[in-house]
Design goal:
Aspartate Aminotransferase, domain 1; seven-stranded mixed beta sheet; single chain; binds pyridoxal-5'-phosphate; 2 domains; alpha/beta; Aspartate Aminotransferase, domain 2; globular
């Protein structure tokens, strides 16, 4: 992995060579290859999919379906198990609205609002019991999961990697526990798919959700994976054109999955861009990407721990680093860093209940990715030292 070379593929870094963009957990920058794939689709192949009978429309359908196959192959699924959605949030809402199940819902304390609110609303509507698994050392506590997941659990919705702590949760154990108790598992993979290889069959997970824009792809396209048999039993989330076999006055027959869940014209160019993003990631290799991320987060944590007044929250194997500068509001830290061309995220990262539990109003989050360099890390650490000087703490 040569981040300096990789940077050359990203127009934003050609415009801003010294920009230390470290907010990749929010969204990643886009390489030329992804931008070109979207632009070329509109220039050369644009037509609606699954409808027209002329060659251009057939070709557009083939390209769209080839993107689905690419995604399926990337996560070890079958193409029919991959539904294109707008993002992780839409995938969670689709499932929470469509899934019919007996029993209560188990979430984790560290849940992003995206998974938390969709399931909480459903629990409220249906009068279902809602439980939260506690956090221990920056990970979901397996011990507490053993208490919270029981015979009365219908759904367990947790994150593979928390967007605040950045470490992989013990999801293998959680999936086993849930299945032993007859519950379904929905795994939020928004922060894991860009960084590590995932095989849905090996994990034996029922559903996963992730967003294209966090893995070099365009905004507005994401993925919901579901086991074939489970998808067949689900009602559509939205209804309209492109998701029906036949519509008569007296009855409607819906298409089979995945098209049953893709009502109306889809983000076709977005799916094409996501396919190009997967090509880019595969060329670099997920193992190399993960090793690079761990190397940089290791340096960041080491550097931050050496600065007096800084408290690092993330644990050893995290792919991102959350921290606080004691006595300084996270927004102020981000502001000072921004003046030095260092972009980080500050706030509660859409995990407000977790921050309440931690007794913090917010944290600063640094999330490196493939194009971040040691120089970026040095700039960040210098910036944090400057924060201490500016605020005299
Ligand atoms: C763990 C996690 N889940 C879900 C989301 C929501 O992603 P999106 O805004 O793309 O729907 C995010 C985004 O930050 C996230 O980090």
């Amino acid at each position: 992995m040569d981040p300096e070379k990789i940077r050359k593929d990203f127009p934003i870094f050609r415009e801003r060579p010294d920009f230390a963009y470290l907010d990749n957990a929010a969204t990643t920058q886009k390489p030329e290859q992804v931008i070109d794939s979207v632009s070329n689709f509109y220039r050369k192949n644009n037509a609606n999919t699954g409808r027209g009978l002329y060659k251009l429309a057939n070709d557009a359908t083939k390209i769209y379906e080839a993107s689905r196959e690419k995604v399926a192959d990337f996560i070890g699924a079958e193409a029919g198990e991959v539904i294109f959605v707008r993002n992780t949030t839409e995938a969670e809402n689709l499932l929470a609205s469509s899934l019919e199940f007996e029993g209560g819902i188990v979430l984790s304390e560290m849940a992003h609002h995206s998974e938390q609110l969709a399931w909480r609303r459903e629990a409220g509507k249906e009068g279902k019991e809602l439980k939260y698994i506690e956090t221990k050392n920056g990970e979901i506590s397996l011990e507490d999961a053993e208490i919270k997941i029981d015979q009365n659990t219908g759904v367990v919705a947790v994150s593979h990697i928390s967007n605040v702590f950045g470490a992989k949760n013990p999801i293998e154990g959680i999936i086993e526990l849930a299945h032993e108790n007859g519950a379904l598992v929905i795994l939020d993979c928004a922060q894991s798919v860009p960084h590590m290889s995932i095989d849905v069959k090996e994990l034996d997970v029922d559903f996963i959700a992730f967003s294209g824009h966090k893995m070099l792809g365009p905004t507005g396209v994401g993925v919901l994976y579901g086991k074939k048999d489970l998808l067949r039993g689900l009602n559509p989330y939205q209804v309209g054109g492109g998701m029906v076999k036949s519509v008569k006055k007296e009855r409607v027959r819906y298409s089979d999955p995945p098209h049953r869940f893709e009502a109306g014209t889809q983000n076709i160019a977005g799916a094409v861009g996501l396919s190009a993003a997967i090509d880019y990631i595969k060329k670099l290799g997920l193992e190399e990407i993960h090793a690079h991320d761990l190397r940089l987060t290791g340096k960041i944590k080491k550097g931050l721990r050496e600065i007096e007044g800084v408290n690092v929250l993330s644990s050893e194997k995290s792919i991102l680093v959350s921290f606080e500068v004691c006595g300084v509001h996270p927004h102020d830290v981000a502001e000072v860093l921004s003046q030095k061309s260092v972009a980080v995220r500050a706030g509660n990262h859409c995990a407000q209940p977790l921050h309440e539990e931690l007794g913090m109003s917010g944290t600063v989050r640094v999330a490196p990715y493939i194009y971040n360099t040691e120089k970026d890390v040095e700039k960040l650490l210098e910036g944090v030292k400057e924060v201490l000087e500016v605020f005299d703490v």
